[in-house]
Design goal:
Helix content: 25-40%
Keywords: Methyltransferase, Transferase
Protein name: Methyltransferase domain
Organism: Desmophyllum pertusum
Bound molecules: S-adenosylmethionine
Shape: globular
Number of helices: 7
GO molecular function: methyltransferase activity
Structural class: alpha/beta
Length: 228
């Protein structure tokens, strides 16, 4: 199951939006911005039809880890939702009492949808890449959550370095990877561990989609930041 690409399912529910995305960085970013800008108004409806279910379990996974390392109330924990899309993770975080949450995404139209959910207090429209994001201070966040966005055609593994930079030393990073793409991120994840930039706290399977021909689970990871 882990090696199945599920292309048929993705195509059935989301069409051929992701066809012919260029591999080189600038072309990929431009394509992603355009694809998600056009998709934004239908995104929640189409992902609901595909049975997307990972937002609640992922938010709960991060929440449980935060409780292990922080003694502040949830309302004082500053979280970046990286690749926030239409804000479904923000909705789940708010249910858990997190009210200091920011949203970053490459697509302004996706962020506009997220604004309607009233769960974020700041929006940053910029790509996640190895480039430093000027609006974000080093160590600014207690945690970053990145759901369904570390996808090969979306964000390169080198962006993990910039994600680490956003988080305070001792802070947390929580993200999903598709099973069939774990290998594409693994070298970078290991390099960051070997160079003591972060340490693994845990990983677990989370429910991903419920529709028959879509992947049922994704791999979720939790890391603690050690060094910028
Ligand atoms: C599959 S959606 C997931 C959205 C949201 N996290 C969720 O789980 O519902 C992927 C998101 O990543 C964003 N994205 C794609 N490439 C990106 C990049 N290089 N930097 C930042 N966001 C990106 C898209 O605009 C889109 O909102």
């Amino acid at each position: 199951m882990a090696s199945t690409s599920y292309e048929t399912g993705y195509q059935k529910y989301f069409g051929d939006r992701m066809a012919n995305v260029p591999h080189e960085a600038a072309g990929q970013e431009e394509a992603m911005r355009r694809i998600y800008d056009e998709w934004a108004s239908d995104f929640d409806k189409e992902t609901k039809e595909a049975g997307t279910v990972y937002h609640k379990p992922l938010a709960e996974y991060l929440d449980a880890a935060i409780k292990q390392v922080e003694d502040k109330p949830n309302s004082e924990i500053k979280i970046m939702d990286a690749g926030a899309g239409t804000g479904k993770i923000g909705v789940e975080l708010k249910k858990l009492g997190y009210t200091n949450v920011q949203a970053l995404d490459i697509s302004q139209e996706m962020l506009n949808e997220a604004k309607n959910k009233n769960v974020y207090n700041k929006f940053i429209c910029t790509p996640l890449s190895e480039q430093r994001i000027q609006e974000i201070e080093t160590g600014e966040f207690d945690a970053v959550i990145c759901a369904g966005t570390l996808i090969k055609a979306h964000v390169k593994s080198s962006a993990l370095v910039e994600i680490i930079r956003m988080v305070k030393i001792g802070g947390l990073i929580c993200f999903t990877l598709r099973y069939n793409e774990v290998a594409d991120y693994q070298d970078m994840m290991l390099e960051l561990e070997n160079t003591r930039r972060w340490e693994s706290i845990s990983k677990k399977k989370v429910p991903y989609f419920t529709a028959g021909d879509m992947p049922k689970e994704a791999e979720a990871f939790l890391y603690k930041v050690l060094k910028h």
